Amino acid sequence: MSWHSSITEAELLAKGVAGVEIDGLRIALYALEGEVFATANICTHAFALLSEGHVEGGCVECPLHQGLFDIRTGKAQGAPVTKDLATYPAKVEDGIVWVDTEARAMAAEAPAAAAVIAQRSDSRRLVIAGAGQAGAETARAARAEGFGGEIVLIGAERHPPYERPPLSKDLLLGRTTLAEAHVFEPGEAERLGIALRLGTAVTAIDREAQRVTLGDGSELDYDLLVLATGAGARRLKLPGTEDTPVHYLRDADDAERLGPALRAARQVAVIGGGFIGLEIASAARALGKRVTVIEAQDRLLTRLLPAEAGEFLAWVAAQNDVALHQGTGVAAVSSEGVTLGDGTLVAADLILAGIGASPNDALAREAGLPLGRAGGIRVNAQNRTADPAIYAVGDVAASCDEITGAEARTESWQNARLSALRAARSMLGLPLEAAETPWFWSDLFGGTLQIAGTPGPDLATVRRDGEAPAFFCLDAAGRVAAVIEFGDPELLRLGRRLIASGQPVDPARLGDPDIELSLIEDDDMKMLPIEKRFTWPASGLDRVPDWVYTSREIYDREIERIFHGPTWNYVGLAAEVPEAGDYIRTNVGPTPVVMVRDHDGGINVFENRCSHRAAEFCRELRGNAEEFVCPYHQWSYDLKGNLAGVPFRRGVNGEGGMGPDFNPENHGVRKLTVTQRNGAVFASFSEEVESFEDYMGEEMLTDFDTVFSGRKLRVLGHYRHTLMGNWKLYPENLKDPYHATLLHTFLVTFGLLVAGNKSAMIVDPRGRHSTMASAKSDGATVSAENKAEMRAYRDGMVLEDPRLMEFYEEFDSPWSVTMQVVWPGLIVQREMNTLGVRQIVPNGPNEFTMVWTMFGYEDDDEEMTRHRLRQGNLMGPAGFLGLEDNEAIKFVQDGMLNSTGGEHLVALDPKVPAGTSNTLISEAAIRAMYRHWRQEMGL
Amino acid sequence: MSTMTKDAPVFDGDSRAARREACVAVEEFNADYCAVLDDGDLMDWPDFFTEDAFYNITSRENFDHGRPVGLVYCEGRGMLKDRALAIAKTSMFGPRYLRHYLTNTRVTGIEADGTICATVNYILIETLAELPEGRLHQAGRMIDRFVPQPGGGLLLSSRIAVYDTLLVPNALVLPV
To answer: Which CATH number fits domain A3-100: 1.10.10.10, 2.60.40.420, 2.102.10.10, 3.40.1050.10?
Structure first.
């Protein structure tokens, strides 16, 4: 023990946190709830004094990058800090704070992980190609998350895995060493059972055999493969580059070469005004060198930063005596320096190019993995590639947004770490954590620039001049999308809160340094916007959150955006209204409408809601009328929905009545856009909706036209029933071929569908419509293997009356059964010869009504009609199959209503992210439906 | 499938007394019928029907408009047996109690061959584990034709259940 006195207790109590130097150690002292604590004062992440940080909730937040440490234990609380702080015993005696400078032993590292390795609880082998930060973090995260198999980390460099940010910063200046930047602590890789194979690279992937080939010719089988091959510096190709040495900075060897060269140089020319170029310019200035930065664009970082921030950065560089050439290309390099496009010679004895990096995706390309449009390996929200056994992390991964299709490749310390974590959790089947706000930092000219959020050159920008200037990017709705600060990390902290809150801000207040930022969002009445309250699980489409099915607010948005949006909604059959004046009461989504044939022969659809007092005026399910009269005040409407008569419109004896401004033309009921396809009638609240043919697309239209071929329909009757579940569970049920043989024992028992049948789950390119199709087997037998999987299967049962299952070929289609979903609310049923449409009428989030219309064709003979009726026993509210689906849907809703915050797993068939699959053991069609739903809902 | 009306020709056997006697027989029959559906073995249910019996459950909406479709539509005892088997052995549905009440029996005619034409009102009460208070599942009327059997007793040659409660709550699991 080595106790030393420091400051007085009174001083510490007054400050809360104080920095002291004792025995050559920089120590931070804290007063917390009447006790004193001591930790190392230097952040384990980058050089900053924690005593200048922010204390809250028993933690200290580093002023530089907001790393958080537990004051009592020193424990690092997550990104960006990963290494714990040293802690020291502290006490108060006679009003003085005493510290024992012999640090407490660090807490023993993850015993759980060690136990896992000892047991080797998993026979799988995880191979990680690329031993940079992302690769190493993947290995570490896989262990931390419980992966018990073998881990092999393969890296081309001879160095152990290291973080790259110091390469262009303190390492160049000799202020730190590569060892300080190592990802693993000494002994950590061994302790975690991570086999490092350094100095060799993966040269080929055999996906079929799940085997990689290494540079030394050896081969290695994998169960899981992570590609962390990073990015390489883009090379200059100019006259002179073959003879003149040009430096690049990407890896440790580059940095080892550049450091001494920089010291020896007199004049440095940096080609490229990006962060790498500016950091090196900054390092060169710190060494007292003359520096010129040459940027081909008109300003710095044009693709990333808004103009104001880029211009400010240029100003900072100029203040630090960096000569800046913007808007000039480079023509040649030589031993004398750099010749610019306009002929100017920038004299230099050291030339460095920082002109971006290109992803090392050749390995993946040769293995046939899909790449991003701008290079990089395409991955989903879980960092999984198109091959379910292969992930890609870090700089090489181009993540593709499942909803918008947008691709992004991010080269940052944060992304290396988070993508590693996502991949590790995903390969272990764990849910992902919510996405973090993107964060980036760069150390420039003695200060630090930090960016939180996603800035864009085209976003409106607000400058705020406080201790140091900061720039806020605002999106179209006036919400903070990003903050860029130049030395006031408190602004970054508050900016992150503004980004998270999603509230529109007043630009004038945001830019006024006299108004505290923390007050801008401090409005008691604030209501978080819907997309902030309902956030999809970070794992992506293979999870569906319960709120999709249970929230009233989501339901209301569905009515507005889907049922009342640019969709075609089935309302009835033309055969139900054969004569002029024939009408039926029907619905578009939940909204009551009337479908009526007028005297011109056209079919009109309008809202069943009097424009006077909202009364649902048409009460009969069907009938024939010359006009519609609202019973309440006798307002009348013609068969097109025009207001025809208003009783006492002119008043009585010149008293009362409507004012002179009343124009009946403006007060008809709301009319919908109507279209027909071979006897099926659809309506839309949208006037801009595309044609029905375009809405369906060619493939879906073919299935639709098989039933609606133009043959005249004969209506056989209706079923109506309520289902105690969310309406979307019904289309999902018909996009879920997985359930068919498992739930519907009847199908299997009587040979209508067995797992080996020819069948398909076809989805339209936009993911909304679909056809589940199968071809009746001819006495096919079920293999023993399949039978065991289908627990419901029973041998030896036969129908007394096999007419139920007879199939009369009457359609030009390879399928005997098609169940087609026409988004959002129609199902067209062709179950052998029993035909019908099912219309979904939602009644709130937890219930919907289904209206079935069963039909045949006018030219059916009596036996065919009876056959259709007999076969109808399969479907409907009492159908052998139908009743089971109704029950299953109810069970699903029950499961959600009695729990909170849950989510569904729809992860079958990961090879098909969303869309048509060639296996029935798939949920790709459900994922496709939710991709479309999320696009429509903006969620 | 035709129903007898008051205007139908009256045969010798169709007297007030005969109808009263038939009414008692029909009520006895229906009491047994309900007992089988409510608490008995579903596989016994087809035995209440003749070999060529017709059985249909349809909404009043369909019936009144001459639409032939049925929630259940069976031609012949074989189809009834198939339904009983399918429900009993293959169908998945939540546990429930169903109780049938058949009341207001009216014999509307007795045909020359002895066939009794009758109507009866019915209600079906359904009680689910999660709905222990129970609920009305269907209310309607049966339009029936009974054939007297050589050894005594009746069998249904036709039963059409027409329900007024147009909206079926979720699913109709058992026959009415």
So the answer is: 2.102.10.10
